[in-house]
Amino acid sequence: MATAITRKKVNWVLEVDIRGFFDAIDHTWMVKFIEHRIADKRIVRLIQKWLAAGVLEEGKWSSTAGGTPQGATISPLLANVYLHYVLDLWVQQWRGRVAWGEVIVVRYADDFVLGFQHEADAVRFRTDLERRLGRFGLEVHPDKTRLFRFGKHAAVNHQERGEGKPDTFDFRRCPAGC
């Protein structure tokens, strides 16, 4: 993983958190995405039933109009399908049409980081990403999403500015603070 990143010209990292992702998944869009991939109507109906199954918390059942049950075995699979269409395919197009420099993406379910060669690309991407996610009922978490310098010159740049050590990221930590 680190080897692939070091071969690219990554000077800025955008660490993104989607606010309440598993609760915010839009069922209508999810079914459209599933129908695009799966022709068997029985499987589509089964997934629709799973989405509408509701949640049992502290002995009380409540219906769900959106989202997927967090902790359910199907939720990570559905999250990957949803973000494949909402994020992955869009990032590929954005990279080719808008970016001036190199852009890399590392995503695991709803957690992702992006590496940019140019700060201007990173800033523009974040603005465009917020607009894109909004179309699908999702929102970038403003307090948990951050842009920071990265790469071999980050430490020198920070030291010259008297900013201390540069920021880092760790996929192993829980972004929601759990």
TrEMBL record:
Transmembrane segments: none annotated. It comes from the Bacteria. Residues 1-173 form the Reverse transcriptase domain. InterPro entries: DNA/RNA_pol_sf (IPR043502), GrpII_Intron_Splice-Mob/Def (IPR051083), Rev_trsase/Diguanyl_cyclase (IPR043128), RT_dom (IPR000477). One of its GO terms (molecular function) is RNA-directed DNA polymerase activity. Keywords: Nucleotidyltransferase, RNA-directed DNA polymerase, Transferase. PROSITE patterns: RT_POL. The keyword Ribosomal protein does not apply. Belongs to the bacterial reverse transcriptase family. This is Reverse transcriptase (RNA-dependent DNA polymerase).
